[in-house]
Amino acid sequence: MNSAPNAPNAVTVIGLGPMGRAMAAALLDRGYAVTVWNRTASRADDLVARGATLARSPADAVAANEAVIISLTDYAAVNAVLEPATRALDGRVLLNLTSATPEEARAGARWAAGHGAVQITGGVNASPPGIGQPESQAFYSGPREAFDRHRPVLEALTGRVDHQGEDPGLAALHYQIGMVVFWTSLLSFWQAIALARANGLTAADILPSTAETTNSLSETFAFYAERIDAGMHLGDVDRLVMGLASAEHVLHTHADAGVDTVIPAAVVDLFRRGVEAGRGADSCSALVELIAKPGT
Ligand code: NDP
Fold first, then answer.
1. Cα 99 to ligand 1 centre (Å)
2. How far apart are CA 237 and CA 177, in angstroms?
3. Would residue 171 be called left, alpha or beta, if left means φ above 0 and alpha means ψ between -120 and 50 degrees?
4. Last residue of some domain: 150, 166, 182?
5. Cα(17) to centroid of ligand 1, in Å?
6. 173 domain residue, yes or no
7. Do residues 203 and 265 both lie within one domain?
8. Is 43 in the pocket of ligand 1 (CB under 6 A)?
9. How far apart are the CA of 71 and the centre of ligand 1, in A?
10. Residues 6+ apart with CB under 8 A from 76
């Protein structure tokens, strides 16, 4: 095993995009000795001015501390950065907060283990301004002992940390499930703004009503979650034929306004396939079965 300082208050951060910079800053705020490395070295300037140490290479950054936070764009970047540093990996705990698929995270953990390192996979549910805030949250998975040992570092990044299990893919899975909701929700808001603009309204004009819809969704989610887990798609509250008609009104409103119809057309397509599959009298939630097993 490589000798590492392993000081509980010393940590390396590799990757200084908006997230990595926010993480390094939060750790400096809490008195950690922080070693940083980034492909574009100038992104470290502010952190170095605050006392961080800029490593000369990824290998030097990894060698500096047992705990190595990795915050890169994707796992292709992780491979590009760590491949030349493999000899420094033995004995390190890679707190890999890079977005990935569960399979990529598992492969990354196997690769790290092959070089004597442990990977804790992370999925951070916060934007850079949320880093260091007590209410922010992140998913983790991987060996429990390593997670517990480095928990204070992780809690410096987000006040709430949830260990999902030993499988290194689980944190990535939970993170990507959250991102399904996040990206489609955000895109639905942007779509709504485009439609509003085409009709002379601004984003501010529609914010109150769209926010009200969004706020009501957690109750709606809870209503459907219980029924869906029970395998129940009773059309007592809503029926798929109604959903199709409603989705078509949304689509035609966009077409009439000359706004891009990719998203509303995809929604209509799903509803129509549900009706064509014979589920028209069931709840719109029957679409879950169609999405889970397309083509059936
Ligand atoms: P960015 O993509 O902006 O930057 C990440 C870093 O990756 C940069 O320092 C960049 O280096 C480096 N990088 C990319 N490709 C390579 C490469 N081939 N070789 C070496 N370095 C490379 O990401 P963010 O900081 O915004 O996010 C980091 C991770 O956190 C991502 O996986 C993202 O999905 C996730 N995330 C981001 C959130 C956000 O709001 N930003 C929120 C939650 C999670 P360089 O500076 O030289 O370009």
1. 9
2. 26
3. alpha
4. 166
5. 5
6. no
7. yes
8. yes
9. 6
10. none
Best residue among 19, 38, 182, 186 to mutate for probing ligand 1's pocket (most ligand atoms within 8 Å of CB) is 19
CA distances from 182 to 8, 32, 288 (A): 34, 32, 18
Q: Whose CA is nearest to atom 25 of ligand 1?
A: 17
Residues 57, 104 share a domain = yes
Task: Please give the residue range of the domain that contains residue 122.
Answer: 10-166
pLDDT in tens, the chain (296 residues): 454 555 679 999 999 999 999 999 999 999 999 999 999 999 999 999 999 999 999 999 999 999 999 999 999 999 999 999 999 999 999 999 999 999 999 999 999 999 999 999 999 999 999 999 999 999 999 999 999 999 999 999 999 999 999 999 999 999 999 999 999 999 999 999 999 999 999 999 999 999 999 999 999 999 999 999 999 999 999 999 999 999 999 999 999 999 999 999 999 999 999 999 999 999 999 999 999 987 66
CB 39, CB 14: distance < 8 Å: no
- For the entire predicted model, the pTM comes to 0.91
Among protein residues, the one with the nearest Cα to ligand 1's atom 22 is: 77
Cβ 147 vs Cβ 181: under 8 Å: no
The enclosing domain of 118 has a CATH number of 3.40.50.720
Q: Whose CA is nearest to atom 42 of ligand 1?
A: 127
Where a domain ends, among 119, 148, 166? 166
Compute the distance from residue 115 Cα to the ligand 1 centre, in Å.
24
Question: Do 97 and 46 reside in the same domain of the chain?
Answer: yes
Question: What is the Å distance from ligand 1's center to 144 Cα?
Answer: 26
Q: How many domains is the chain built from? A: 2
